[in-house]
Amino acid sequence: MTPPMLEVRGLTRRFGGLAALSEVSVRVPAGRTLGVIGPNGSGKSTLINVVTGHLKPTSGTVLINGRDLTGARPWTVAKAGVGRTFQVVKPFRGMSVRENVMVAATYGAHGRTAADAAGLATDVLARVGLAGQAGRAPAELSVADARRLELARALALEPRLLFLDEVLAGLRPAEIDPALDLIRALAAEGVTIVVVEHVVRAIVEVSDEVLVLHEGKVLTSGPPDRVMADPRVIEAYLGHRYARRGGA
Ligand SMILES: Nc1ncnc2c1ncn2[C@@H]1O[C@H](COP(=O)(O)OP(=O)(O)OP(=O)(O)O)[C@@H](O)[C@H]1O
Ligand SMILES: [Mg+2]
């Protein structure tokens, strides 16, 4: 039997007294897309950070394609075929857009040579719509293009498992559909995807299954339509957003 591409069991991460992530368990079969939603501060980015080695778990287990990578370093996780974007973009500032993508290509599961990395960077930059910006410095990019660079760097790792943390943030409405098309195309190629987004329509359109986090815990999970119709989700998620809009 093939193991799920991602299996997380009882994952917990505390920051002092705060349980940013509490006893979270989830399975994502190979080739499927999991959408993760939840109010601000519900633990979405922490889940990605703990699974990809950027934060150590306090307790729990992370299995990637059946391999125990609990607490592994980020580069070990990347070498295992896992790509990710950061919610706060993190390019190498002293390198061009193209060089940033080439570095990722050489660090991926396949460890591309410089010549291969150049070709891969050209393909990936075209795919995310950054071909025209390849020679620029990351600091010169718009907010939306900086997010595209994050995505390009993650794709240059040639991941089998890809975590996307709010890659649609900062995109104009007309730019969202092409981004969703790209996510669907990656899924069609067999990439397993975990997508964190506040744009509920986007989550419903690309996800096979949706996980809802609330105060670090799993509130519910299941097919997108059923989850989005769940009164607890509407209360926890939309209620919070309405409260934010009215309050802060
Ligand atoms: N490095 C850290 N040190 C201390 N607290 C942290 C750290 N990272 C996250 N937290 C806290 O953990 C909780 C979960 O944060 P996280 O970033 O995972 O939320 P999120 O669901 O991604 O929110 P958002 O939608 O705003 O991105 C929050 O209360 C946050 O303040
Ligand atoms: Mg976050």
From TrEMBL:
One Pfam family of this chain: ABC_tran
Note the InterPro entries from the entry: AAA+_ATPase, ABC_AA/LPS_Transport, ABC_transporter-like_ATP-bd, BCA_ABC_TP_C, P-loop_NTPase
Could you list this entry's UniProt keywords, alphabetically sorted: ATP-binding, Nucleotide-binding, Transport
What Gene3D superfamilies does the record point to? P-loop containing nucleotide triphosphate hydrolases
Origin superkingdom:
Bacteria
What GO molecular function annotation could you give as one example from this UniProt entry? ATP binding
Xref: PROSITE patterns: ABC_TRANSPORTER_2
Report domain ABC transporter positions: 6-240
Name of the protein in question: ABC transporter ATP-binding protein
